[in-house]
Design a protein that fits this description.
It is a single chain. With 102 residues, the protein is an all-alpha fold. It has one domain.
Length: 102
């Protein structure tokens, strides 16, 4: 890791953090999507990044080969869509269906 200025961190703080906060505020809660959907998206993101970073570290340390790394990365992309499909299908889409206004 480097010390000092990192333009990626600055971009994340100024742009991505603000946009993500705004999207969460607009899309979730009353009368939007349930907060369970937000929790599902965050858990999905954390899990997929652990797989992504973990497999890359294993490759860099020589534990797995290039073919295994490629297979894991492809499976990781498939899991993104699989989790979205499961969220849509499970319990009639309780996590992803907008709330009915009364």
């Amino acid at each position: 890791m480097r010390d000092g200025y990192n333009p990626g961190v600055l971009t994340a703080l100024i742009l991505f953090l603000n946009v993500s906060s705004w999207v969460a505020r607009v899309c979730f809660g009353e009368p939007g999507l349930p907060y369970g959907g937000l929790a599902l998206i965050m858990a999905d993101g954390v899990f997929l990044r652990v797989v992504l970073i973990g497999s890359t570290i294993l490759f860099l340390h020589g534990v797995i080969g290039r073919a295994a790394l490629t297979d894991i990365q492809i499976l990781n992309a498939i899991l993104l869509f699989a989790f979205a499909w499961i969220a849509e299908s499970w319990r009639s889409g309780i996590f992803v269906r907008p709330r009915q206004s009364s």
